[in-house]
Design goal:
The structure holds two protein chains of two kinds. Chain A is mainly alpha-helical. Helices cover 70% and strands 0% of the residues of chain A. In chain A, helix 1 runs antiparallel to helix 2. Chain B has four helices and no strands. Classes of the chains: A mainly alpha, B mainly alpha.
Chain lengths: 176, 120
């Protein structure tokens, strides 16, 4: 095992363990906080794979913005603080079977396919802001701009959905 | 570093996300599980970018795109969840059965088709 692998394995274990806690804990707010741990550990994995810019974007956007949005959602839906018994639906066993099947299939395939492959991280400049930025604005400009329009459309849509004073009027007898 | 470590971690994270999407009732927890699945995909993209040394930086550029799309998705998803909560006072995904097939067996144990038709 190389040094990078020695650091990667515990980081991966932290990411995996906290993501398991995200989907099994019976306290909503704690699920969001375990998600912070999982995403932070994954940012560390990105750093080990020399993807420096992606790691910091992950910290900024996921840990900083997405989890805060999710916490807002938890608060605004008046979720109970503390234990709630009804967070899992009735098809838990079926979900476990499907998830174990997915895990077994995927792990078998990737271990069989990449058993001998090895990453040469080089000097670690592959993921620096300069390299990724040059690639992004030299070869990926059109998707980048399209994505900005998509993001704008999504945010305008979110505003339209959440405001009460715009949008369709409530129909008579629509509630049943 | 072996490629196997990150891709196995990504596969396991994806499976955890699949379990969360299928097993959770609360719509916000379902969104969190979707985020876990997207992160597993991101880890794969970064790994293969580092392995193949792509000159276009495709893997990392696509990772940034996926992160931006995930942010858009979670914003829009939460707006929809809040709208559902405002109209129904509940965000349990297995109770939102207005679009369910009416001839299917009832999800509520003990409820017959006649009772459900009467409830309509």
């Amino acid at each position: 095992m190389t040094g990078a692998e020695l650091v990667f394995v515990p980081l991966g274990a932290v990411a995996l363990g906290s993501s398991v806690l995200v989907v099994t804990t019976d306290q909503l707010v704690r699920a969001a906080l375990w998600l912070v741990v999982a995403l932070g550990a994954l940012a560390g994995c990105f750093l080990l794979l020399a993807a420096e810019l992606v790691a910091w974007v992950q910290v900024l956007i996921y840990v900083g913005a997405v989890v805060v949005l999710l916490l807002f959602g938890i608060m605004l839906t008046r979720a109970p603080i503390g234990r709630s018994v009804d967070l899992d639906s009735g098809n838990r066993v079926a979900a476990l079977v499907v998830a174990l099947g997915t895990a077994g299939t995927l792990v078998t395939v990737v271990v069989g396919g990449f058993r001998t492959a090895s990453i040469d991280l080089g000097d670690g400049s592959a993921g620096s802001a300069g390299t990724v930025g040059a690639g992004l604005f030299r070869y990926w400009v059109l998707p980048f701009e399209l994505l900005s329009v998509l993001l704008l459309a999504a945010l305008v849509g979110a505003i339209v959905l959440s405001r009460r004073d715009i949008g369709p009027r409530a129909r008579d007898g629509g509630e049943d | 570093m072996h490629v196997v470590y990150p891709v196995v971690l990504a596969a396991l994270l994806f499976s955890v996300g699949v379990y969360g999407v299928l097993a959770r009732r609360n719509a916000i927890l379902v969104l969190m599980s979707v985020e876990l699945m997207l992160n597993a995909v991101n880890l794969n993209l970064v790994t293969f970018d580092a392995w193949l040394k792509d000159t276009l930086a495709s893997g990392q550029a696509l990772t940034l795109f996926v992160i931006a799309i995930a942010a858009a998705e979670v914003g829009l998803g939460l707006a929809i969840v809040l709208l559902v909560f405002r109209n129904r006072s509940s965000i349990a995904v297995d109770q939102l059965r207005d679009l369910a097939d009416r001839d299917a067996p009832s999800a509520v144990p003990g409820e017959t088709v006649a009772e459900r038709e009467a409830a309509r």
